[in-house]
Amino acid sequence: MVTTGAPRMKITYATLSADNEELQSAFDRAVTTARGQLGDRYPMLIGDERRFADDQFEDRSPIDANVVVSRFPIGTAKDVQDAIAAARAAFSAWRDLGWRRRIELMRRAADLISERQFEYAALMAIEVGKNRLEALGDVEETADLLRYYSDVMERHQGFVEPMGSLSPTEHTRSVLKPHGVWAVISPFNFPMALSGGPAAGALIAGNTVVMKPSSDAPLLAFKFAEVLREVGVPGGAVNLVTGPGETVGAELEHNPGIDGLVFTGSYEVGMRLYSSFTREYPRPIITEMGGKNPAIVTRSADLDEAAEGVMRSAFGFDGQKCSANSRVYVDRTVARQFVDTLVEKTRKLAVGDPTRRENWMGPVINERALGKFTEAVAEAQHDGGTIEVGGQVLTGDGTQRGFFPTPTVVSGLPLGHRLFHDELFVPFVVIGEVDSLDEALEQANATPYGLTAGIFSRDDTEVRRFLDRIQAGVVYVNRRSGATTGAWPGIQSFGGWKGSGSSGKNGLGPYYVQQFMREQSQTVMGEEPPPA
Ligand code: UN1
């Protein structure tokens, strides 16, 4: 087991470097072990059944498209229906187990995930192309999500709140109760945290779940579901189906046996789900969608800090985070110096096989993503932009078997250009020059998105103005470790305003678990209050 002797150093997205040799060699060992498991067949999890299928799809590595990471069933509508039936059958027992017992199981699962951090991170690095710190962070974030949501449930003692009384014989309380069965549809970019976190929120609240991970990254969601079963979460409480959105996703969207849906992914899919899921009656749906996250650099900024923060958030995991920084509004008087510093830092980034210690950036997830990158570069050039650095696709040393863009900084495009507004999900950042903070804020807010945003300024009045005016659910001031990225459970809650998210309540934060419950007001007449 690779976890034996693995160092216990907490790795978050803000961990800047790990020159801990013990950690590095533990990760190298884990990669070797992970390679031995590549190509394995996995089942769907439906009730207590492990359901294999003859029709399978291959989950291939973006580092080398010849490498099959895992094989999963191409699920059918019938598989989804069976999973929903299993989840419905398991619901009342899971609810009646009580929140104390549920969080006990979740905390045990969290510890198991932390123990296996290296094993899971190595698989993830190969599956989606994350570097080691990002992959280790994703796994540990998942464990902390379980812990944090458990803590919230505990702090509120299961959300039973005594209310006022209009007479001595009237006793009222407000109780939050689970809905039933939730679908959890998750993306490739945080394969464990974005499948495990939402599933944990639903489960801790007392719901049962049917998970459907991205076909680009089903393996870590599967590992998560397996851990839950291992610690004793009953089979029917956590189900997992795999396969295409058009069939498997569509069944989850339309089946009336689903009581709530939590989705993380693109704006287009999220908006479609948002309206179709509530067509019959208002079932709860939580959507976390995209971002076109701005950073503002004022003339008072520490430019080295700003360039470092932008570089990390624009290019970390190749810009494939919905929190990624993809546009910068910089005061004209410091623009040249800022861009030069950013370019200098960007040139130093090593791109290549991200399972290797020396590479900070790996591939984008698939050929389509690479196509988006090359199109954006061509469009920027065509429309008069300057490619300050990057704009290339690597081809040597085996990289031609994967999808490796170079980190790209573009200046000189008009502020109204599409590349300032459309989310690309690739390592591509556009720089716009502005004359004032107000102009920067106006531009920053002029998109349908409102997920994350950052400012670099040493002027308190500017900072206050930014905090007052910026339209985003997660904001950062002078953050060298990431201008717009790197939220951590219980530290920064994470969610979007406007077109970036539907609920106005963030994940990773104190108001998340409650969204998986509905309120009941209970008034009981009598001399004595009713038993708890
Ligand atoms: C996402 O990319 O969908 O703050 C969300 C961050 C991460 C974002 C994850 N926690 O950078």
Q: Which class do the helix and strand fractions yield?
A: alpha/beta
How confident is the prediction overall: mean pLDDT?
A: 96
Q: Could you tell me the CATH topology label of the largest domain.
A: Aldehyde Dehydrogenase, Chain A, domain 1
Strand order of the largest sheet: 15-16-17-14-13-19-20
Bound molecules: 2-aminohexanedioic acid
The CATH class label of the largest domain is Alpha Beta
Work out the strand percent: 15-25%
Regions with pLDDT < 50 over 5+ consecutive residues? Answer: 1-5
Q: What would the principal axes of the Cα set say about the shape? A: globular
Describe it for me?
37% of the residues lie in helices and 19% in strands. It has two domains: 44-289 and 505-520, Aldehyde Dehydrogenase, Chain A, domain 1; 293-488, Aldehyde Dehydrogenase, Chain A, domain 2 (3-Layer(aba) Sandwich). It has 14 helices and 22 strands. With 532 residues, the protein is α/β, with parallel strands linked by helices. The strands form six sheets. A seven-stranded mixed β-sheet has the order 15-16-17-14-13-19-20, with helices on both faces. Strand 6 (160-162) and strand 7 (170-178) form a beta hairpin. Mean pLDDT is 96; it is low at 1-5. It is globular, with a radius of gyration of 23 Å. Helix 2 (77-96) crosses helix 8 and helix 10 packs across helix 11 (332-347). It has helices at residues 21-36, 77-96, 99-115, 117-128, 132-155, 193-204, 219-231, 245-254, 267-276, 303-315, 332-347, 367-382, 437-445, 460-469; strands at 40-41, 44-46, 49-51, 56-60, 68-73, 160-162, 170-178, 181-185, 208-212, 238-240, 260-264, 285-288, 293-297, 325-331, 386-389, 408-411, 428-434, 449-450, 452-456, 474-477, 497-498, 517-525. The longest helix has 24 residues, at 132-155. The chain binds 2-aminohexanedioic acid. Residues 13, 189-190, 194, 264, 321-323, 485-487, 494 line the site of 2-aminohexanedioic acid. 2-aminohexanedioic acid is lined by residues 13, 189-190, 194, 264, 321-323, 485-487, 494.
